Amino acid sequence: MANTSEIRNGLCIKFNNDIFSVVEFQHVKPGKGAAFVRTKIKSMTTGRVLDNTFPAGHKIDVVRVERRKFQYLYNDEMGYHFMDTDTYEQIFLKEEMLDNPQFLKESAQVEVLYNTEDNSPLTVEMPQYVILEVTYTEPGVRGDTATNTLKPATVETGAEVRVPLFINTGDLVKIETASGSYMERVKK
Fold first, then answer.
1. Residues 160, 149: one domain?
2. 167 to 4, 12, 162, 163, 183: CA distances (angstroms)
3. What is the pTM of this model?
């Protein structure tokens, strides 16, 4: 058991018969009344994000998790298949366990969080950024660069992202996996 002073981003806790990961937290000490901790927690099983407030000093049940490196292989009707880079053991996980799986490229390195109590996978952590090739986008019109206008582009994984007008088919782009937003063009 721990208390609310130990809450930090990424901490996994048991709450309402489920396992949650702390996404955001803020310790609040109002001028009047008792202190509290305002949190955003994400369910590791359903992916739902909840806003919750814990009173200061409240006991929380911390879940010990282990991170293991895996390599993405492919997906089919069973789910997404991964290989442990240490033991070469293969596992498959359902799409609900992944955030933004449309940015997964074959042989991409990901981290799978395991609950150490029952050795079950909880969620897949994608890399923060991925570099993908644009397979199709409309050509930009000369003179349309006065504003920060974005156009749709399809990348090699099949996902659609919004990119600036100067990006062409065949360019490599850096994409933030959490939001799916374009970051920059990458030189080949």
1. yes
2. 47, 40, 10, 7, 12
3. 0.75
